[in-house]
C-alpha cells in the first residue's frame, strides 16, 4: 500500500484529532495553557506529513486537501492552524529544493511527525532586506547569531528555519531546536491567538551544518511561497469564520422565546433573526 492509498486513513485520523480541539480551546486561551498535547495528536495523525512527497513517507496530498484540513483545525482552535504555518512553509520549500542530505533528512522527519518552526522576522525592522541576524563561516561550519520575533510555533519545534540575508541573498539556516546557544521565549502578548508562541528566539553563536543552509535563488519559488503563506492565513480565517457562524447558529437554535411583534413565535424562523445569521 502506498502513502497515497493511505491518505483516506490519515485524513480520518486527523479528523478524529481535530474533533477534540474546540472543547477546551477557550479555556486554554484564557489560562495560557499551551496546546502541546493537541499539536502532538495532530502531528501523530499526520497533518505535518500531508504535503511531504510519497517517496519520503508522506501523503503527497494536494493543496486543496491541506486547505480542508486547515479549515477544520482553525474552526476548532485557530492557534493550532497558525502554529502549523511555518512547518508547512518549510515543507513546501523542501519539496522544490535540490536533492541533498538535508532535504532527505528533513522530509523524512516531517513524515515521521517531527515539527519545523520559523524564525524570520525581527522587531528592529519591517523590511526583510534589513535583517540583522548573522551567519558567518567558522572553519567547517557556520555560526548563527541574532534575535528573531514572530517565531510562530518555534517553541514546539524540533527544527528551526532561521532566515538570514547575506551578500544580498536570502538563506535559510536550519538547526535542531536543542542546539546549544538557542533560547526560545514565550513572550508573545498579542490580542488574539495567544498560544501560537509567536515571540522571541535568540541565537548565540549557534553551530550550523553547511548542508543545512538553503539558498533561495528561485524568484518563481519565492513568489509561490509568498502566496502559500497567505493561503495558510486564508484557510485559518475561513475556519475562524465557520466557527463563528456555527456558534451563532447554536445560539439561535437555543432560543425559545420570541418577542411580541415578531412575525412568528419560533425565533429560529424569524426573518429578522435569519437576516442577521445570513449576514454573519
TrEMBL record:
Residues 126-206 form the Acyl-CoA oxidase/dehydrogenase middle domain. InterPro entries: Acyl-CoA_Oxase/DH_mid-dom (IPR006091), Acyl-CoA_Oxase/DH_mid-dom_sf (IPR046373), AcylCoA_DH/ox_N (IPR013786), AcylCoA_DH/ox_N_sf (IPR037069), AcylCoA_DH/oxidase_NM_dom_sf (IPR009100). GO terms for molecular function: 3-methylbutanoyl-CoA dehydrogenase activity; flavin adenine dinucleotide binding. SUPFAM superfamilies: Acyl-CoA dehydrogenase NM domain-like. One of its GO terms (biological process) is L-leucine catabolic process. Residues 17-91 form the Acyl-CoA dehydrogenase/oxidase N-terminal domain. This is Dibenzothiophene desulfurization enzyme C. It comes from Nocardia macrotermitis. The lineage of its organism: Bacteria, Bacillati, Actinomycetota, Actinomycetes, Mycobacteriales.
